[in-house]
Amino acid sequence: MTAVTLKNVSKVFPGETLAVDSLSMEVNHGEFLVLLGPSGCGKSTVLRMVAGLETPSDGEILLDGEYANDLPPRDRNAAMIFQTFALYPHMSVADNIGFPLKLGKQNGAQSVPDAVGDMASALGISDLKDRKPNQLSGGQQQRVAMGRALVRRPKLFLMDEPLSNLDVGLRAELRTEISSLVRRHDATTLYVTHDQTEALTMADRVAVMRKGVLQDVGTPDEVYERPATMYVAAFLGTPRMNLLEARVNVYLDRYVALDFGEQELRLPWHDLRGRAVARYHGETIVVGMRAEALAPVAEGHPGQSIQGRVRFYEHHGHETLVFLDIGATAVVPDGIGDKPDLARSGSKPRRRLGGLFSGFGQSQVEHREADTGPIRKPADLVFRLPPHIPVSAGQPITVAVHMDALHYFDKYGKRIDV
Ligand code: ATP
Prior knowledge:
The structure is a single chain. This protein is of the alpha+beta class. It has two domains: about 5-235, 3-Layer(aba) Sandwich (Rossmann fold); about 240-335 and about 375-410, CATH 2.40.50.140. The chain is built from ten helices and 20 strands. The chain has a six-stranded mixed beta sheet, sandwiched between helices. A hairpin with a 4-residue loop joins β16 and β17 (about 320-330). α4 packs parallel to α5 (about 170-185). Bound molecules: adenosine-5'-triphosphate (ATP). Adenosine-5'-triphosphate (ATP) binds next to β2 and α1.
């Protein structure tokens, strides 16, 4: 039995906004599941429906296997933690943490001061117990808010961007603390964020959303290494995965060429990958290459490589990101952030209902933003150089391509399994 089950859950807000589109997903007992996606994709709405603060327009929510669409929030044994801390300003830290226990929502036989003491020490704030919230830093306030939610040992934690008001250093520190605390309490957690680092470092599994539609669910490794859609591939990872249009040309019994326009890569024909890609003979697909699949080599390198000229580069301290002009066409999935470049793509945005794999595509309700389809533009192939290697604009560079690390997507943006 799962802790939380969503079956084809949709939410339409007044004004016909389809915030969540036929979403099905399960959170297992004791699991830390992160809902990841850009602002407005519907993550908070999912969380609020699980909390009972919103009612689904369609579909079912089960908690511990029981139908829970109409269950009042107080009967869900769930604690919600938001990005704003909302502590009681007139109460001390200790009283804030102990407050839920005094309301009688106690779990276990421990006395209130003992439970508060244990919680304060687990959170590293024992010496702040007598202070008032306005005498605390943002990070300390968030720890108190966490303590107040944890103290009554709920079975389910619902966290909505709890770290987004904190500075970078504190966020990194609290990331580790939150995941170890909830794991120690054996609680199930549904955690909402737009921050991929939080998702990849904290989650047992990550669920990636786009415009109300679930795109992919899996362990951090699975969604990073085998993204189900081009959107997920582009959303996860820094720098963003290179996504290049390629025409597939099959030379029977010899090789399968990925033709990028001015140059090509070849997959062996007698190879499972070659065979899988060969099915798209004559079609245009998208080939994904993360920066880590690319490495500069000397000209004349015998393996598979791509050549280009440096368009620009960025020093990042520990590495330099180099952007190579390779005469190919890049694809930016809809919703990833680049503005449509209509002059370059030569097409008008299409207004279309439903996401890539939307089950709601034929309905009369509209998404918040029209889908424009992917954007096409001249490709910059991005790869990394160690910081001490000199590089200059216009310089010709050859990069070796690690062919085992390529990703392939069809014209709908769906992963081609190889
Ligand atoms: P963020 O990270 O910015 O909070 P999100 O992914 O959590 O974004 P939601 O808050 O779930 O997104 O919102 C999804 C969509 O539903 C948005 O377009 C939002 O404007 C809309 N929406 C949310 N709540 C309501 C509401 N009460 N009434 C009408 N529309 C709403």
